[in-house]
């Protein structure tokens, strides 16, 4: 499950997981477990919310964080 950082217009970035990466044809981004970068709850959501939909018109850009498998890849380092 990929983790994204959504940069929303006039808001702090939001971190969450998605089932699949959004495509250029999507109108909404559906995030599971939305939170701030530091892991704290978003002040404008109810405490028991587990999934949020944002319209793509409000999203400036999206960052895709590496999965745990990608972080463990050892590459050749020349010294």
Overview of this protein structure:
The radius of gyration is 15 Å and the shape is globular. By secondary structure, the protein is mostly beta strands. Strands 4-3-2-1-5 form a 5-stranded antiparallel sheet, with no helix packed on it. The N and C termini lie far apart (35 Å). Strand 1 (3-8) and strand 2 (14-17) form a beta hairpin. The protein is built from 1 helix and 5 strands. It is 5% helix and 38% strand. The model has no long low-confidence stretch (mean pLDDT 87). It has one helix at 68-71; strands at residues 3-8, 14-17, 28-35, 51-55, 59-65.
Key traits:
79 residues; 5% helix; single chain; 5 strands; mainly beta; 5-stranded antiparallel beta sheet; 38% strand
In short:
With 79 residues, this protein is mainly beta.
Task: Note the topology.
Elements: E1 3-8, E2 14-17, E3 28-35, E4 51-55, E5 59-65, H1 68-71
Antiparallel strand pairs: 1-2, 1-5, 2-3, 3-4
| Beginning-to-end CA distance, first to last residue | 35 Å
What's the helical proportion of residues? under 10%
Radius of gyration: 15 Å
Strand content: 35-45%
What is the SS-derived class? mainly beta
Which runs of at least 5 residues are low in confidence (pLDDT < 50)?
none
How many β-strands, per DSSP? 5
Mean pLDDT, all residues: 87
Order of strands across the biggest sheet?
4-3-2-1-5
What characteristic shape results from the CA principal axes? globular
Order of helices and strands, N to C? EEEEEH
Largest sheet: 5 strands, antiparallel
Number of helices: 1
């Amino acid at each position: 499950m990929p983790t994204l950082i959504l940069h929303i217009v006039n808001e702090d970035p939001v971190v969450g997981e998605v089932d699949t990466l959004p495509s250029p044809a999507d109108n909404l981004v559906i995030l599971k477990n939305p939170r701030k970068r530091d892991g704290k709850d978003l002040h404008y959501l109810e405490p028991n919310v587990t999934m949020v939909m944002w319209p793509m018109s409000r999203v400036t850009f999206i960052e895709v964080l590496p999965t745990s498998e990608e972080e463990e890849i050892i590459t050749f380092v020349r010294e």
